[in-house]
Amino acid sequence: MIAIQEVGPRDGLQNEPVRLSTAEKIAFIERLAATGLRRIEAVSFVHPERVPQMADAEAVWAGFRRASGVTYAGLVLNRRGFERARTAGVEEIHFAFGVTETFNRKNQGAAPEASFRQFAALLEEAEAAGARGRFRATLTLSVAFGCPYEGPVDEGRVVDFVRRAAEAGFDEIVLADTIGVGVPTQAARLVRRAIEATGGRVPIGVHFHNTRNTGLANVYAALEAGATVFDASVGGLGGCPFAPNATGNIATEDLVYMLEGMGVATGVDLDALIGVARWIEGKVGRRLEGMVMKAGPFRPLGAG
Amino acid sequence: MIAIQEVGPRDGLQNEPVRLSTAEKIAFIERLAATGLRRIEAVSFVHPERVPQMADAEAVWAGFRRASGVTYAGLVLNRRGFERARTAGVEEIHFAFGVTETFNRKNQGAAPEASFRQFAALLEEAEAAGARGRFRATLTLSVAFGCPYEGPVDEGRVVDFVRRAAEAGFDEIVLADTIGVGVPTQAARLVRRAIEATGGRVPIGVHFHNTRNTGLANVYAALEAGATVFDASVGGLGGCPFAPNATGNIATEDLVYMLEGMGVATGVDLDALIGVARWIEGKVGRRLEGMVMKAGPFRPLGAG
């Protein structure tokens, strides 16, 4: 059974220049849940000066109607964010850091090792306080397929963090191609090595950007290799801060089209999801990059 | 060894509303050859009233400077086109028909069976005339992954045409997803069955459109399954007559990026090819859909 992790409200909106109102963000999350999506990354608890689009995280989190069977998540990058998420009562906390020195120092002001140790310590503290059962913890390894500053990334370094993350008690580990440079053979190899490193005990997810059009090819390779969680953003919402003209996340409706076409059940109503893609396109006021929202599903015209 | 078949000057331009001058088409073909591409579909010999963009096929064919090591091809859909191509001295003739009744009747005014038999007869006649050695013959099976009128296409029907095409002496058989509805498992299965049906004696090619963003995923699956020829159009030039807002062929530079990233040598200079994509984008006057032409290759910024 695979899972789609919708990241439009977080990774998507965070990389759009326009700012949505709190009410619009809440409506967005509710519309997504109504399509059958079962996992939604709703907010991030990051510094409001660094990411002004997420400054109202607490209000958004408190504001949306919970849909039955849907898990909502919040992203955190450090102790302060973790505490905010815990205070808000977030049931699934997404930790993330970049696996290269330069990227993580620029983005989180810390070495990758320091970020990892801080996250592991937060899980330990929660465990000691008897609170570890109150939330699910995922870890995203950013720039695992390539770093905008350092270039190619040593796979051994990535796999080592995967192994240690499993040991530290993360419930899920996500390999992220933050800048969209990955290719399918690389995706397959990294996923296989991650599964080996964790003895298959921890679900391995993938987070692909379609910056160079390889996003769904990487999904297919990762799926074949055993990945079970797929991040995507409705409409392909978001962008790439390292390539101004480029697209961001793979589009959720394109992912759903491909998976369903291959007989992989997603539980998502594709027409409803296309409707949300068009709705949010109107809100952000630019042409989104998703393809199925333009071409439509495969509906024969008839012989007429 | 794989081959990229550049179809921008034919499938690309044919589906762009703008009309280029003969001199511009010639310059386009010459620029493509200078990037290291070794196979270029340069023109189609079709009725000028049906495809006005190709009305100057003979003049284009006669006009471009031949680059060493490059094979240029012309598309034909019937006996008249074949005769024009032979008169022009085309060394690689691309035959094509749609495998469904409705599609082929609407596009070529004939049943698929009739088109196939006519093509096979043309090869036989050339053989009898001692002229078969003067041209290479490829056969493209259009709408092999789905028909805009009839919907899903029976794979057995496609595979049967593949087997008969090999028996009829075609040098290469191309499975075309003309409307961009295919998914990777389907691509892998069709390619495997085509190779089985021909006993591996005839190269199997694939022609994917990226209409629903599955183009490169299908390439990867087809490559793994044993396909050796990949059609693509620089910049993703072209469109989809059945989905007005949708993109057409996969972009050659995106294909090159992915293949080279996987260690599959293409012989193409990616930067030069991006240059041609931007040049032709200026000529057609609309934003093309290729991604690597916007994001660029993977070039780290340095730690600075």
From TrEMBL, chains A, B:
Keywords: Lyase, Metal-binding. GO terms for molecular function: hydroxymethylglutaryl-CoA lyase activity; metal ion binding. GO terms for biological process: ketone body biosynthetic process; L-leucine catabolic process. Pfam families: HMGL-like (PF00682). Residues 2-274 form the Pyruvate carboxyltransferase domain. CDD domains: DRE_TIM_HMGL. The keyword Transport does not apply. InterPro entries: Aldolase_TIM, HMGL, PYR_CT. It comes from the Bacteria. Belongs to the HMG-CoA lyase family. This is 3-hydroxy-3-methylglutaryl-CoA lyase. It comes from Hydrogenibacillus schlegelii (Bacillus schlegelii). The lineage of its organism: Bacteria, Bacillati, Bacillota, Bacilli, Bacillales.
